[in-house]
Amino acid sequence: MSRFQGKVVLVTGGGSGQGAETCRLFAAEGADVAVADWNADAARAVADEIGARAIAVDVSREAEVKQMIAAAAQPAGRLDILVNNAGVGYSESGRFRMASVVDTPEEAWDAILAINLKGVAMGCKHVLPIMAAQGGGAIVNIASINALVAMPGADAYTASKGGIVALTRVLARDWAPKGIRVNCICPGGVDTPMIAGVVEQLAAENRELHPIPLGRIAQPAEIARMTLALASEDASYVTGVILPVDGGATAQ
Ligand code: NAD
User: Fold this and answer.
1) For residue 76, which phi and psi values (nearest 5 degrees)?
2) What InterPro entries is this protein classified in (predicted)?
3) 36, 100, 101, 138: which has the highest count of C-beta atoms within 10 A?
4) What is the ipTM of this complex?
5) How many whole angstroms from 234 Cα to the centroid of ligand 1?
6) What is the arrangement of strands in the sheet containing 180-187, beginning at the earlier edge strand?
């Protein structure tokens, strides 16, 4: 298959987990891929593996996001697909610790909102004019089912992901006349480094965070495949959609 032959694709957070898998699948289907991550070594490793370009970026800094978009678009003079995937959740270090709002230090609140929400907004801000000028494009934002159903003790993360859902809808509405589609995926639990500590802890305690009808968390490729579907021409009439990819968790 080469659904993305001739398409230029930029994936943030492409150095790990779902982002890395998304880069692999786009490359396998013919895209010219730019792998962006603040972990420059991880971005380089994925890029080398799939014959892509690597870009070092901290998505919470607008100046760096602007440079990232320009670098991704520069060789071909276009940028067809942006996947705003970079995000932070749980970390043992405590900086991004998931906690109730009363237990969330201001520094953690600011950091989580700046990366997870402002990062998405800045990516859109700088890619939309390019997509409009070239006559269209597709953006896929990665939120979380935390934006759709309340999970205990992840308040800043939840607020940031809820913001992505709302932002997706307004951008889809405003930019549809320019031929730009903006959609959002809300993954449930996915087997990536982000939640490895949580998964380990739950397994040790023989309990689950929430019931999943399909009986397991997702593999990264199961999210990535839906990202490609929304970015592809198969979804030419789909915009403003908030798609849970969660094994049925939010269907209950
Ligand atoms: P991951 O930790 O494996 O990957 C996240 C990547 O984003 C890492 O490579 C990291 O270096 C990068 N990143 C983080 N902050 C960045 C920044 N400021 N600038 C640039 N890059 C940055 O986790 P993942 O599960 O692949 O997460 C991908 C997305 O999916 C995130 O937005 C996450 O919130 C979301 N998500 C994950 C799960 C899950 O269970 N794993 C569930 C729902 C949503």
Assistant:
1) -95, -10
2) NAD(P)-bd_dom_sf, Sc_DH/Rdtase_CS, SDR_fam
3) 36
4) 0.99
5) 26
6) 53-56, 32-37, 8-12, 81-84, 137-142, 180-187, 242-245
